[in-house]
Amino acid sequence: MNSSAAKHDVFQAIADPTRRELLHLLVEQEMSVTTISGHFPMSRTAVSKHLRVLSEAGLVKEQKVGRETRYRMQPEPLLELKDWLSYYERFWENKIQALKRFVEEDRSENNVPAMPRIVD
Length: 120
Hints:
This protein is mainly alpha-helical. The chain contains six helices and three strands. The protein is elongated and about 70 Å long.
């Protein structure tokens, strides 16, 4: 593992709302720092620092095109986050099911008609 890959992990990189917004911008197309900076009320230097963190986490790739450096999103490292969250999803599902049972029991005890069912 090289030293830059060890500086920031995916969790650190996406912890900042500005970096999450940067990723959102780069989903559709690659952009230069100048273009990206136009979307934020901060300096190009500040945007570059955020891009560096994303790059160190493997979420953004740089490509030189002439004198310009363009950035594009690399979504593969987000799989680590997805895997981590999927483990905890079962706890959310359990809580939702418990809440559903509680509401249904409360309705039946108080003779409240059931809510219409919403079909996805």
